[in-house]
Amino acid sequence: MPDSLTIELSRIAEAAIEKSDRLAAAAALLTGGELVFVEPPMVSFVAQSSASGGIQVHGELDAHVRLTCRRCLAEYEDTFVVPLEFRLEPGLEPDAEDEGVFALPPDGDVVDIAPIVREELSLAMPEFPECRADCRGLCPSCGVNLNEATCECGSSEPDPRWETLRKLRV
Fold it and tell me: Domain ranges in the chain?
């Protein structure tokens, strides 16, 4: 039985294919353990043949992940809805692929779109996760989380690395 992220070419020639299933969390990762999934991502898509002989895919991926804030280092959970909109085109060389257009393998009865879905998920993840837009981070002197407490370390002494710039100010 084909995987939930595969498209059977013989079936798509007859009618559009609609699928919805959870993606195994391990299969969702491109590299290492950078993402921690609270639950396996849900993938829903419709695939249909295009006039060019290729396949048009549209749908979405819902991912509920646990991230670490870059400012305060606290863990938090967030949900991402990633739109899936791409084409698989026959006769396209893999090095000629463009944004949203991928090569349709020349032989085989089944096309696995999992690598494309993983790439879209990876691109949708924040490069610098923040638990909230107004996160105050950690005190550079004592390390207290400034979202939870006020530090009493008295870090009012200016950073000596900026002294040269302070001298330029008139």
Answer: 6-134, 136-170
- Strand-pairing partners, residue 102, are 88
pLDDT-derived band of residue 89, with 50, 70 and 90 as boundaries? confident
Whether the CB-CB separation of 166 and 158 falls below 8 Å is answered with yes
How much is the pTM? 0.75
